[in-house]
Structures are given as C-alpha cells and as structure tokens.
C-alpha cells in the first residue's frame, strides 16, 4: 500500500506555490560574469520548474504565485500556458515589484555562482486574500516552496494555503528550498520552516536545510538524520527525504522503511537544476501510487537527465524517456534498502 | 485532579510575554480628550498588568519584552522591581523605538475611548535571539499576549518562546488580547492566532477574538462556542475560555465539563481593566491546583474589584482581599455548571 | 527706513509653517521623569508657539502644517481657533501619523531634559500639493521652521512654499530651529538648511545652528559670526541674527549696522521657551516697520517674560504688557550698537 | 570669446555624476520582449555613457557614483578602467543594492520600450559623505544627471557636489535626464530640478523636462522657450539648451545669441542613445573653447553616428571620425542662428 492516498475525484494533480523567475544563462562559458557578453533567457524558480516538470510528465498542474506586471510576467504566463499549466491563480504584482532574475556564472564545469535580483521580488506579493479555497480543494497536492515563507505577505499566503489544504484533504509537500536572500535572520528561517514542516505530509530537503529548520531547537548537528525523520513523522508526515549531495540521500517512510538513493553517473554540464527534476519525477510516482523505491528511482534518473543539459525548465522529460534511461542503466544500483539509523 | 499539572521544581511561576506600556488617565473626567488638562501616569499593557497581578497575589513572576531606552523604560523596570518581578529578560530597544502610550478618554462612566501611540512601539523589538531557553525552562507557565504576534521580530520571538516552552514542559497560556493596531490585515491576525492556539495549553479570549482567529476557516459566525472549544481541545488545549461581555463567559475543560461565569455586581468607574485582573486570579488558582470553578470564582471577583478603581496595575489585589470579597458576596451565584453546548 | 518693506495690501500678517505638537510638563518638579506622576498638557512646537505669540500681539496669523487625525489634532485646531489663528490650511494626516509629544523632565531649575515622541510624526505629512499659492500670496510673511525640512514630504512642501513666497513678494523668515530627531545625517542638515538660507529674507538661529548649516562648507568654527552674516546678506538676506545663549546675540542688518542683544535679568522657571517669544515680538516689530534696535528690545523683553512662566504657548504676552515690562526695566541696557566684526 | 572659461590648471576635464547601469539589448529584433531569447550586455546609464564618450574624445574623465558589490559592479569598473576613466570615486553599495538594468524591447525600428530594474538601485547609494571636495576641485566640469536627484542619499550627494563645485570654480552642467522611476511625485521633481538649475552653469534638457522643472511655478505650457532661457540665464547659467525631438533644438547663450540645431539625416537603428553622444561632443567643444555653433555641430554629428549603431557606450567616436562625418555632410545645414524668441 502506498504511503499517501490521494482523492482521485480531485481534478488537479498538483499546485506548486512560490516563485516563478527568469534565469539568464551565459552563452560564453568558463569565465566570470563580468566577462560574459550574451545571455539566454529561461523560465526558472524551483516551484515553477516543478510545475513544468509535472506537466512534461503528463500531470495536470496549476500554480499559485505573483509575477511582475510587465513583459517578463507575460513571458512566464505564456510559458506556462504553452505547456498546459493552469495560470488562473497567477496574479500580477501591482506596486512596482519585479520578477526575480538569476544570472548564472559558470566559471568552470564544477564551479558556478549566481547573481540574484530579488529586491522587491514580485513573488512575495501574493497575499492570503489571493488564495482560493476552491482551487486548493480541487487539487490532490499542494507543494509549498520554502522560499515563499521568507517574506510577507507571501509567508501568510502559504500558511493560508496549507490551512485550506488540511481542511480539504489536499496533501501538502514541503520542499524546503532554502535561499539565503530575503530572510532577516536564521531564527526566522527556523521558526517558519518548522511551523510548515509540522503541518506537511511530505518534506524534502538537504541536511543543511534540515539543520536550518532545527538548529535553534537542537544545536549544532547533535542529531542524526533518523531523529529528524522520527520527529516529523510523529508530527504527521508520511515521507521525509534528507539529501546529502554527492553522498546520496535517504528517504524515510512512515511505514518504518528507509532507502538510500544514489545518483546515476552522468557528465555534468552545470551543478544545479537536478533538484526540481528529482522532485517532479518523485511526485509523479506518488501520484501513480508507486512504492517508495520506484518513486525514488525515477526521481534520481530525472535529475541525472536534467543536470546534463543547459536549462532546467526546458530539459524536463516525459515518462517514456525516463523509463528508457532507467532501462539503459539497469545495472546501476541506485536505490538500496537501509537500516533506519543509517549514517551517510 | 486539576486539568493542568505543573512541574513544582521550576522556581518561576509565570513569565508573561509582550508589551509593557504607559497609561495616561485623565484627572478631569466626563469630557473629550481635547478638553483634558492633566493626566496621571500608570503602568499598562495587558501582560505587564498580569505580571503585576500575579506578584500582588504572591506568585513569582518574570517578564519577557522590550521597553524604550529612555526614562519611560526606566519607569517600567523600577515599577516591576518594586513589586519583586524579575526584570532580567527585559531588553532596551535601541533603534529609537518608544514605549507604547495609551491616553484614555473617559467621556462618561460607560463610554471610554483610547488614543494609542504605537508607531515604532518598543515592545515589538524583542527578537528570537533575545529569548533565553533556560529562563523559560525554569518557569511553570509562559503567558503569550496575542498583541505580541502583530509584528516582527516580536512575532518570531513568541514562536521561539513557545517552542522552548513545549520542549521543557512549561505550560503555555495564550491570551488572545486583540488590538487592531499594527496588524496589516485580518488574514494575518487569523493565521498567527490560529498557529499559536494550536500549540497552547490554555486559551482565553472574547468571542470576537475567537472569531478573528477562526473566521477565514469557518466563515461568519456559523460555528458555536463549543465547536471552537472542541477544536482547540482536540489540538491539545486543556482549558478554553470564551467571553461574551456582559452576558458572562464559558470555560470549557478537557475533562468535558463546562462552567458559566457571571460578573459580580459593582459600580463601574471605567469600562476596561477587568480582563487582566481576571486572568491573574484565574492563573493563581491553576497554580494552586484548584478545581476550575474555584479558579473562575476568584477570577471574576478580582475583575470586579479592579474595574471599580482608577488604574489597572495599581489596583491589583492580594488573595486575602479577594477571598474577603468573595465571602462578603457569597449569596451571588457567579459560577454555574452548564451543558457543553450552552449558548450565551 | 526699515530693512524690510511689506506689502500692506496683503491681509494676513504671518504664516508659520511646521510642527504643532503637545508639551507634557510635569506637575511634580525637581525629579527625574520616571518619578513623575501627573502632567499638564500644553500646545507646543516652535512655529505653533510663534503663531500663538503673534496672535497674542494682535497680528493676523495663519498656519501651514499637518496634525493627527484624532483628539490631539482637534486640541490643536481648537486652541488656534480660540486665539483667532486661521486654521484653513491645517491638514489631518491620514496614515496613522501621530502628533509629536514632548515630555519635559525638570530635574532642577537649571537642568531640564526632554523625551520626544516623533516616530511617524504628523507634522511631516504636509506635502507640496497641500500648499496653496493663494494663501501664501495673501500673507506678508512666511516663517519656515527648520525642523520642517528634516523629512519628506514636509521638506518639499517647505521649498514649494518658499517658491510661492518669492514669486509673490511674501517675505521669508527662516528660523533654523534645529532638533536632532528625524534627520538622517549632519550632511543632510547642512544641505537643506543652506538651501533654505540662501532663499530667505531673515535668518535667525544659534551659533551652533549656523555651524550645522555651514560646517561642511567651512569646517570647524574657522569662521567668524560676521563672515556668516556677510555670506547670507550677499545672498539676499536683510537681517541675520546669531545667538550665543547667555552671552547674548548679535543682529546684523543689510544696512551694515550690527547690534548686540542681552537678556533681561529674570528668575528662570525653566530653561526653554524663550526663543519663540523672542521671535514673535521681533517679527511684530518688523511688521510695525520699527528700526532694528526697537524690534530687538521687544524680542528680548518678551523672552524674559515667558521663561519665567510654566508654559510657552499660554504665557505669550500682548504689546501693552511687553511695553510695560520694558518701561519698568528701562535702566537695563539690553541693546547696544556694536562693531560689525564683534566677537561674543 | 567662449561663454565658459575653464581653469586650465585643473587636471581632470569632467566628472559625470549619477548612475552607471547595464543595458540588455535583444539579439532577436522586431518582437516583444517576452518573445526574445538572447540578450547582449552593454554598459549604460546616461552619465556613464557621457564618461565613455568624453574618454573616446580624448578628454580626462572621472566619475562619481555607486555600483553594486557584485560581478556587475566589477563589469562597470573594468569597462571604465579599460577606457582610462578614473574610478577612484566609484563606491560599492553595501546593503544589497543592485545595479540598475535596462532591458530594451525593440518591437520595430521606430518603436522601442524599456523594462527597468531599479528597485534598490545601487546608484542612489552614494551619500554626501562620499563626496571628495578635492576631487571636484581638481576638475574643470561637474556634470550632474537629474536622475541622481530622484532619491536619497544620492540627492544630497549631488547638492554637496554642486556646493563644492561652486566653491572651487568647477563649472556645473545640469543634464536634466528625467526618468519617471523612483520619483515620488511631480512636485518633488519640480522642486529638486529647479534647485539644481538655479545653481548650474549649463542646463540641457528636452522641453518636456523643462516643463517638469517649471510646471508648478508657471502652469501648463504658458511660457515660451526663451522665457525659460531668460530665467535661468538671469540666475547665472551661461548656456541653456532646450530640445524638441525631431523638430530640433535651440541653444541660448548668455551673450544673447540663439542657435537652432537640426539632426543629420541617418538611418535609425534604434530610437535612443543619441542624447549622451550629443552631450559628450558638445562638452568637448566647450572644453576646446569653441564658439557655440561649432560645439553644437559636433554634438548633432556625434548623435547621428551613435543612433545608427547597436549600443550607446561602445559606439562613442573619436574627434577625427566626427570631423570626417561633418566634412562628408558639409552640405547639410544643421546649425542656424535664430531670433531669441524663435518658436519650434
């Protein structure tokens, strides 16, 4: 039996909530940003990428968020519409807020930096009054990106959306997705992350992100991964995924089973973008009521496919391609059952 | 058996958290404020009044909050020190914040208005980093005043304090204490009140305050008092008190018993100040492990004694005086067991 | 011939521009503020005091400024109306701004401190769009208080008012009136004070205030009083008054004559409030086309009468009383012609 | 004799003051911005372009302004250094301010729009304390871009720089350069533009910009160009240039002579960028002590050369090229003496 049961009568599969942004990736590689002359523009922002990923996998995705009231906002809306993502709940920020921009500096294949434009970012302009109870009621999943908790009124909009989700049996996935911008203090990070995490059904994040969520409560890394998993499962979560970068990640289920996940071996073009590919294939599996190992296998396969390409959003794959990739690599052991108290 | 068990090894009885302020009450009564010439200055602010009330009743009280870095801040500290209230966790706001002021307009015995000075109020300057885990660990009760949730960083400081309280078995009393100042929207009120209420052990508020807490979830007054009580008891609260002004209030216990509370008949000098007197005597009873009816009787008696005097903070009574008042009025039936679904 | 000629066809005598506020003076003297129990409330704020002073002297005064939209704002308006000061250009600040408050601490007859409430002060809410060209055109004098330059939009409103005054031959008196609150930096002070001073007809200030106006240009006190006077007379001012506290002050006229002004010997009740009394009697003399020495004699007499009383605004005198005071003290030599390069 | 005499002992020719920014120009033309895929990055911002233009013409240019403390700030500094522009007074904004970005939408050869990123723009971070009196003293010209007056502390920094310039006989050129971003109201625009214009030696702007400067004083276009010129010449300006777009512009000299300036006929690539080319060649002429008509001829020639190319900053010409262009077009009558009261 799957860890999460979805209400099949709900027509929408998933509503990612948070930022949609634009990535400017340099066309001249292996140099610092001040040496670059031309850029290519892509849709970006973790929850927006997940919406695109889910749509590429054939799931019905909506979106909750605010975009700028200018041509860049139109770019986002058009990009979504062209992929059959519902845009009815995307609002236009009306007080001069601008779409977040990410200029990527690819100094070398293994060393990339980003330069963020997030002063008065449009995505924070979504307010609790903008949240439609009906919209959330009609979706199997609400996915909240942690960055959306960094500032008001977006922060309150997220808590309102979670409240509606819990009222109407819409499952809540909390993707911690920490970005250091816009937060006022680490205490603030910890407080709002832990409030969200105690109300979600699935939490995903890196170990660093869980430390941010917990640190004021437990102190410096004095807790094991499984203790974190125990805590959030006790609070009602069904799945907790803790990522350790190149060392792989561990997924803990409320049924007491844990799995280690490793990466497929691929040639990296850039060191970012895999997370959203991972997330969308993983959620695809949940929606298909697959067992946890199968969800995880598709997640790590999708991630591998995306990090080998130039963009995030435009490299999202369909399920046939992912299955083909997995089949071609069937000798690589990427999913392993592990002891609950495993240390990575 | 009492509804709440306290850890007797904790040396502090209660830590009210929130604002300490100054009340300016007019010496010339029955006129509008612009006609007043002289004012008398009193300590004010609901949690500060409760600290004074608890101290008057002989309990060991601390305080968490920020005051202005000027003579008025010194006034608050001295006032507390003179009453043996611990001031070690009172911080001075360093960025020009000023102590909140309340000028009372007593137009007639039944009609009073207030003029508030709360722009850059000092009390909001307390931050999560200011909260001492040890201090909270050493107290039987943490009382959070809802107004402290109205703005950052005080809002986050409250959630941090609640986190420490829950970790160390310090009971949390959430006194909704709504003031329309400083909140940005009613959605914001509802979101943060409901987050606090789902983590507390005791909630006290007027029916209007519970409506603010719930309204976005349930809609316009479509719920009964007992449904609210049920909800918060299910979330872990042991006592829920819902006040209906002159009609009296109802206290719901996690043991399934409910009591109606009425006011003693007294000549009113002013229409405010009773709530903090009520709160401090009620909490006194909890700390004494009294049964709920006895706690409530002292609460309503103390309230009656304070509304008949010119100030709040300086009129707080000791237990001998309250007992004497109750004894003199023993023919007045103020506490009545009622059906759980009673409607006031 | 007088240094300033006024257009007698203009019906209003003077429009002070800037803050109206409330002073709370303690009724219990010779103690620090945290020991005080009761306060008496007076109208305050330098340009408001001058309006009251001019009205007491029988001149037709208006006022430009913003007050709070509450009972304290009503207090100011009523106070002015009762003294026949035109209130048609007093606006109500609509965004929660509050009237400035000054709590006075009179620790001893010679030592007084103030505690100011000026966060989101209502007086800064007057904007250039609020300024009526017609209103200024119809007045002989516009008096700008330097504090009104400390923040926007009041700052821009002052420059707009000065622009209209210069266009319509309304004389501009710049009363530097420096308060350290609300300014962001000393550079800012210097920049806006010097811009105002180069467009005025009369400047009045203490030597410290002139240093603030000049310091970035000249450096630390390397200039004499007369060099400052020379500069501003060259830029078009007709009278420059530089005050040196107890040492007296010097008034420089555009006719090349300078006068030293000393205080009458009186028993001081408090160490503040004389400046506005000085200003109003001095301007009264200008409006009467008196010679400079006669203006100055009345100024210093009026100051002496006011510092001996409990309030500023309510102690303002009529001309008969001032003349009587001067006549009684005719043996005191308070006005002396001095060399232009005199050093105090 | 030239209208402006420069002190030849000053080693620096000109210090433009204001914003340095980045222009992103689309590589795919004739489409709206949301359809563009790749952009080329250029240095932009009017005073930065003028610095580049002056350097291309062989003059010694400095710069006063703030840039972001990131790779884009480094791009600006490197761009300047490579052209021998002094960068010693360029400061790094330290509070998260970002360099202004301008995304250009070239919908058609005659229709271009811009999308500006100016929330918390770095250029406004220069403060009066950052201004070096010595630096300004050592330059023949200070050029203030009007956009730098739109917000604090840059606004105050400009007035400080003008103060130093006037003290040390450094000529002040006020290039109105109005952008609607960042200003709070049109009254504010008018107040600060007119304050700057009454202290400058040369003013350049479009008729719309002069209307913004004057409108609150004079009302709706009820004044002729020559009346504006008269006013600012009376206040001390030596040259006033009022531009009327395609109809040409008129230059008024303090010697009472006026000249009409027309554009050379060129094929337009884009509808912007000519102004800074015009300005730099014009100022080159002033520095060479040329007569006004010769300055203007080079200005309009330089403008014509730059609007025909893809960028502003990188298309700036040297004097040989401009002279060659003028020589080739010697039959085009672009400069004409006109009556002072000419109407365009």
From TrEMBL, chains A, B, C, D:
Higher taxonomy: Bacteria, Bacillati, Bacillota, Negativicutes, Selenomonadales
Organism of this sequence: Pectinatus haikarae
Keyword vocabulary terms for this entry: ATP-binding, Kinase, Nucleotide-binding, Transferase
InterPro entries, sorted: Carboh/pur_kinase_PfkB_CS (IPR002173), DKG_kinase_firmi (IPR022841), Myo_inos_IolC (IPR030830), Myo_inos_IolC-like_sf (IPR023314), PfkB_Carbo_kinase (IPR050306), PfkB_dom (IPR011611), Ribokinase-like (IPR029056)
Family as reported in the entry's similarity comment: Belongs to the carbohydrate kinase PfkB family.
Pfam families in alphabetical order: PfkB
Domain (Carbohydrate kinase PfkB) ranges: 17-316
Function: Catalyzes the phosphorylation of 5-dehydro-2-deoxy-D-gluconate (2-deoxy-5-keto-D-gluconate or DKG) to 6-phospho-5-dehydro-2-deoxy-D-gluconate (DKGP).
The protein's annotated pathway: Polyol metabolism; myo-inositol degradation into acetyl-CoA; acetyl-CoA from myo-inositol: step 5/7
Molecular-function annotations in GO: 5-dehydro-2-deoxygluconokinase activity
Protein name according to UniProt: 5-dehydro-2-deoxygluconokinase
């Amino acid at each position: 039996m799957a860890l999460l049961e979805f209400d099949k009568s709900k027509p929408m599969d998933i509503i990612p909530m948070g930022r949609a942004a634009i990535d400017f990736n340099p066309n001249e590689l292996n140099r610092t940003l001040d040496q670059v002359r031309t850029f290519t523009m892509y849709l970006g922002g973790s929850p927006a990428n997940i919406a695109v990923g889910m749509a590429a996998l054939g799931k019905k995705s909506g979106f909750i968020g605010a975009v700028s009231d200018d041509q860049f906002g139109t770019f986002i809306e058009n990009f979504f519409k062209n992929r059959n993502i519902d845009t009815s709940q995307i609002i236009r920020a009306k007080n001069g807020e601008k779409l977040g921009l990410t200029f990527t500096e690819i100094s070398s294949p293994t060393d990339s930096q980003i330069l963020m434009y997030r002063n008065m970012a449009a995505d924070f302009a979504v307010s609790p009054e903008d949240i439609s109870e009906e919209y959330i009621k009609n979706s199997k999943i609400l996915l909240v990106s942690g960055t959306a908790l960094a500032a008001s009124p977006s922060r309150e909009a997220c808590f309102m959306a979670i409240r509606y989700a819990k009222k109407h049996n819409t499952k809540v996935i909390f993707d911690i997705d920490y970005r250091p911008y816009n937060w006022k203090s680490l205490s603030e990070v910890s407080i709002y992350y832990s409030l969200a995490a105690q109300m979600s059904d699935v939490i995903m994040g890196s170990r660093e992100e869980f430390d941010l969520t917990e640190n004021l409560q437990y102190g410096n890394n004095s807790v094991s991964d499984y203790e974190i998993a125990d805590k959030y499962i006790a609070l009602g979560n069904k799945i907790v995924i803790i990522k350790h970068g190149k060392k792989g990640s561990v997924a803990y289920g409320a049924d007491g089973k844990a799995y280690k996940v490793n990466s497929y071996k691929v040639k990296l073009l850039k060191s970012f973008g895999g997370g959203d590919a991972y997330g969308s294939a993983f959620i695809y599996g949940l929606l298909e009521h697959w067992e946890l190992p199968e969800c995880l296998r598709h997640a790590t396969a999708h991630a591998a496919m995306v990090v080998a390409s130039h963009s995030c959003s435009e490299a999202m794959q369909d399920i046939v391609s992912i299955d083909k990739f997995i089949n071609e690599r069937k000798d690589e052991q990427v999913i392993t059952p592990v002891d609950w108290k495993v240390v990575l």
